[in-house]
Amino acid sequence: MNLPESPAPAATVASTPRVLLLAPFLYGEGSANGGAALCWAQLKELAGVATVAFLGFHGADGAQGDERESRDLASLKSHCAEVDSVPLQIARSAVLRARLGSFAFGEPELARLCRTPAMEAALRAMLQRFRPDVVWIQFPQMAQYVELCDGIPCVMDVQDAYSLSGFRQAQRAPGPRNWLNWVAWARYEARHYPRFAAALTLSEQDAQVLHALNPATRALAMGLPLADDQALQRSHVAAVAGQVGFAGSFGHQPNLEGMAWFLRDIWPRVRERLPQARFVVAGRNPPATLTAQAGDGSGVEFSGFVPDIHAFYASNAVTVVPLVSGGGVKIKTVEAMLAGSAVVSTRIGVEGTGALDGCHAMVADEAQAFADHIVRVLSDDALRARLSEAARQHAGVAFSASSWRERVITSLSEATA
């Protein structure tokens, strides 16, 4: 994984910058899905080098003020000088208008849904009130708000290059809608990202794709700050014998596609050879098409939300990442490696992590080979222990929070120079 070299430890920003962070959702301590967990890790590091204000959407699921969002707001307020949010209530009529607009004007459907008068007004007010030195915008659907930040340097925190993940989805499920969606995202990212002082990506591949779409985009691979002191100092937890696990948000299409493939083509092959093996799937609101496969004798269990994702990964003798689409670095892969779980993955699942096949993870893209790897790791304690330790050591270095923080200091200094 090729990341910008970390500056010398003495590198500092001339004065503490004021950073306004603009996000499409709330997040905080204990966020369940990978994207939210990563954003929280980033915010904690940012708050150590800058005065941070936060503005984001709430209530995307119609549950304003629910317990989870209340916890997120409390977390954000503990690290930010100012926190504000506006509702994003997506009615069926709004989705239909966005979809029609996407076809008619070539704009991504999600981006149209996230462009609201309430957010525009809140952003203008926050810019006037907080007077940031830098606006840090997270996720592609929010990039359009750079238009309201005239005269203020902006940093684009890409998280997931939708032009790449959209292309992979269209390749896997060809059809007019998916290809039009990919074209819309490619044009959108190529149009907006050159307006940013930098477009920060999770992987070198994402940076290269964005630069290829428009050479005027200053795309930099920054990595992930997931290996902080807390993660590195956690005590080792013994895995449950025979337990295979997966965690993910089921609102994310690559997770749905990967799980469907795994349950249909891979897990039956594992159970045929290891009848006592169990497959535990963590994550809120799995669809009925998946949960229907957890019947008697399947060895499949859907556990729902897990409050401690590190403990979940550590309890798995094997964590699987059977993803066949998507871009960026798969946060679940890094979290599993840091927890000391042996990982079996597709190439897309370990993309951007620097993990080597047979050293830090077992990698296969074909169903039979994937199942063979799971059976082998479950049956060989020495192999599992070697993979676990090598993965943990590698992730602790490759995804160091302190190194990420130093790269961010440099990016902020350059943006405000």
Describe the model:
This protein has 417 residues and is an alpha/beta fold. The chain folds into two domains: 18-225 and 401-416, Rossmann fold (3-Layer(aba) Sandwich), CATH 3.40.50.2000; 229-398, Rossmann fold (3-Layer(aba) Sandwich), CATH 3.40.50.2000. The chain contains 17 helices and 13 strands. α6 packs antiparallel against α7 and α12 (309-315) packs across α13 (331-338). The radius of gyration is 21 Å and the shape is globular. The two termini are 28 Å apart.
Cα radius of gyration in angstroms: 21 Å
Strand order of the largest sheet: 3-2-1-4-5-6-7
Beta-strand level of the residues, as a percent range? 15-25%
Alpha carbon gap, first and last residue: 28 Å
Name of the CATH class of the largest domain: Alpha Beta
CATH architecture of the largest domain: 3-Layer(aba) Sandwich
CATH-defined fold name of the largest domain: Rossmann fold
What is the number of independent domains?
Answer: 2
Element-level helix/strand string: EHEHEHHHEEHHEHEHEHEHEHEHEHEHHH
In one word, what is the shape? globular
